[in-house]
Amino acid sequence: MSFEGFFERLPVLITGATGFIGSHLAARLVELGAGVRCLVRRTSRTEVLPAGVELVCGELTTGAGLQEAVRGARVVFHLAGVTKALAPEQFYRGNQVATRNLVQVLDESCCRLVHVSSLAAVGPSPDGRPLREEAQPRPVTHYGRSKLQAEGEVRGSAIASRAVIVRPPVVFGPRDTDVFELFRMAARGWMPVVGDPDALFSVIYVEDLVEGLLAAAASSQAAGRVYFMAAEVPLSWRGLAELSSQVLSRRVRTVRLPYPLAWPVAAGCELAARWRGRPAIISREKLQEARLGNWCCDASRARSELGFRARTPHAEAIARTLGWYREAGWLKS
């Protein structure tokens, strides 16, 4: 997975650069010497971005500013999207419509689009075996369906033959706010589980995913391909609790929540979110995903074609993540 020198002085555009994964990608590209441009909203928190990046204000859902943002970009990383929402239509507007608007303005100057989708676009593994890229998509939530439709916008566009679709599973690491909620509960000694505590799910540490995205951009073999990118060994809820116990030096118990009890709690969280006008991480959609067993994918295609490998062991990745949360004051030491 060598791309030494490939990104040096290369004009690159990132959408979603102020998000969790995007901010890590921007920092790595600056480190590699790329000319990094970031599409941001006027309300975006740009302080998470490294010095030296160019900012272009725009809006993917309306198309405002996109022509200026893409001008001259040789590689485009499309990470912007909606992962939680107050209403279903917000998923489709923020994922499908936004992707359609982006691909419509890309021209011949763009030699590679790396579109970041999700395992949710395919759904859980029905027989427990890790899913491969050719599996029939069966998304179970509006989020998953909107990500699948966004993939369709890429496939149906003029840039399809120069695009790469990457489907990560659960991504965690420093600055993440979603999986953080699990770690915060683990720091208090318990981890709630809806469904089987031994059900398996694929994960990837954010720095490993960034390296995979760079490999997808640099490899000529990746054009027109779809890749899962995940650690080779999946986790279970019980396994995550045990690893967290080791890092936190305290016992972390898995507490199984019956679905009939969890459902009204999730519904209540949604009502509170609508009242606040801000989506919550706990929702009936997330509950639906959690109770459906195994969410595993097979990253062997990315290993064989891109040389990708998630090199950070789970224990080390969790230790780095929790260490960052403590230093940032998100978790008490």
Task: Describe what you observe in this structure.
- This protein has eleven helices and 13 strands.
- Strand 4, helix 3 (88-105) and strand 5 (112-116) form a beta-alpha-beta unit.
- It has 333 residues and is α/β, with parallel strands linked by helices.
- The protein has helices at residues 20-31, 66-70, 88-105, 142-155, 179-187, 206-218, 237-248, 259-276, 284-290, 300-306, 314-327, and strands at 11-15, 35-40, 54-57, 75-78, 112-116, 163-167, 170-172, 190-193, 200-201, 203-205, 226-228, 235-236, 253-256.
- It has a domain at 11-170 and 203-234 and 295-312: NAD(P)-binding Rossmann-like Domain (Rossmann fold, 3-Layer(aba) Sandwich), CATH 3.40.50.
- The protein is 39% helix and 15% strand.
- The mean pLDDT is 91.
- The protein is globular.
- The longest helix is centred in the N-terminal third of the chain and has 18 residues, at 88-105.
- The strands form four sheets. The chain has a seven-stranded parallel β-sheet with strand order 3-2-1-4-5-6-11, sandwiched between helices. A two-stranded parallel ribbon has the order 7-10.
Concise account of the structure shown:
The protein is of the alpha/beta class. Helices cover 39% and strands 15% of the residues.
Count all strands and give the number. 13
Strand order of the largest sheet: 3-2-1-4-5-6-11
Radius of gyration (CA) equals: 19 Å
Helix percent reads 25-40%
In CATH, the architecture of the domain at 11-170 and 203-234 and 295-312 is 3-Layer(aba) Sandwich
Structural class, judged by helices and strands?
A: alpha/beta
Provide a count of the helices. 11
Strand content: 15-25%
CATH homologous superfamily grouping of the domain at 11-170 and 203-234 and 295-312 = NAD(P)-binding Rossmann-like Domain
**Distance between the first and last residues' Cα:** 37 Å
Q: Shape, please?
A: globular
Mean of all residue-level pLDDT scores: 91
User: For the report, how would you describe the main beta sheet?
Assistant: 7 strands, parallel
Q: Identify the CATH class of the domain at 11-170 and 203-234 and 295-312.
A: Alpha Beta
- Helix-strand sequence: EHEEHEHEHEEHEEEHEEHEHHHH
CATH topology of the domain at 11-170 and 203-234 and 295-312: Rossmann fold
Poorly predicted parts:
none
